[in-house]
Design a protein that fits this description.
Keywords: Membrane, Transmembrane, Transmembrane helix. The protein is mainly α. It has 3 helices and no strands. The protein has a domain of 59 residues. The radius of gyration is 26 Å and the shape is elongated. The termini are far apart.
Amino acid sequence: MLKGTRNIVGLALALGMMLYAVPRLDFGGGWTLASVFGAGWIAFALLVTAAHLHELLGVEEETKRELLKIKRMKKWRLEQSLQGRRSLLQIKK
């Protein structure tokens, strides 16, 4: 399965679970064990949904591209530095 497809399926499942479960959760009795569980469950479901949306929207793609550019530039500078040293060593011989 493709990476995007996996995120779409996960997002759909998380949203479906929230649509099914949120109306059934009990929040009317104050800070009971059931209401704390419901709040924690909703927070976790929202976290899962946000993670899938983050991947689908490609928020980090630009950052990954910039880091790749930096790594390539460092590698190029190292190669240029090594080539310069080689030429100096050849001149000294």
